Amino acid sequence: TPPPTEAPGGIADTGISVSFVQLRKGRVAPPPPPATAEAYAAKAQESGGVLSMMDLLVNDLTKEMTTAGAEEKAAQGDYEQAMSDSAAKRGADSKSLNDKEGAKAQMQALLEESTGEHTSASKELMVLEQYIGSLHAECDWLLEYFEVRKQARADEVDSLGKAKAVLSGADFSLLQRTSAARARKFLRH
User: Fold this and answer.
1) Contact 148/186 with Cβ under 8 angstroms?
2) 93 alpha carbon, distance to own chain's centre
3) C-alpha separations of 19 from 25, 35, 124, 140 in Å
4) Radius of gyration for the chain, computed over Cα atoms and rounded to the nearest angstrom
C-alpha cells in the first residue's frame, strides 16, 4: 500500500502557513471605557418635578385649545361674512346680468327694426332715383329739342295761316318750298 498523504497544515487546514499571522507580543489591557451617566438612584423629590411638568403641559395645552377655539370662531365668523358678501355680490351680478340681457334684447329689436326701415328706405330711394333719372332724361330731351320744336310750331302756325289764306284765294307756291324743306330737316333730327 502506498504511504498515507500528509495532512494539510496551516490555518484551518487551508495550507496557509502560520508564519503570515501576526501575533501580539505580550498582552496589554484595553483602555478603560468612556465615562457615562451615573448609576441610577431613585430620588423622591424629583418625582414632583415630573408631575409639575405634566401640569404645565396640561395648562399649555388648555391655553392652546382656548386660543385655537377663539381663532376658529373668528375664522368661522370671517367665513360666514365672506359667504354672505359673495351671496350678495352674486345677487347683484345676477340682477345686473338680467338688466344687461334685457337692454341687449331691446337694442337687438331696435337694430332689426332700424335695419328693416333702412332696407325699405333704400329701396324707395332707388325707385326715386330711377324716377328722377327718367324725368331728367325727358327734361334733357325737351331742353335739347325746345328750339327745334318751337320753330316747328311757328312753322306750323305759319303754314296754317297760309293754308287759310290759300283757301281764301292767295298764292304762296314759292314760300311753301322753303317751309317744306324746314319740315324735312326737322324730321331728320
Assistant:
1) yes
2) 19
3) 15, 40, 132, 146
4) 68
* Chain segment 112-156, per-residue pLDDT in tens: 999 999 999 999 999 999 999 999 988 888 888 888 889 999 999
CA 67 from centroid of its chain's CA atoms: 47
Q: How many residues does the chain have?
A: 189
**pLDDT of res. 25:** 60
Cell numbers representing residue 82 in the block: 365672506
Alpha helices in the chain (DSSP H): 46-144, 146-168, 173-188
Distance CA 28, CA 19 (A): 22
pTM of the model: 0.35
CB neighbour list of residue 166: distance below 8 Å, 6 or more residues apart: 172
The alpha carbon torsion through 97, 101, 106, 107 (nearest 10 deg) reads: 90
The alpha carbon of residue 140 and the mean position of all alpha carbons in its chain are separated, in whole angstroms, by 59
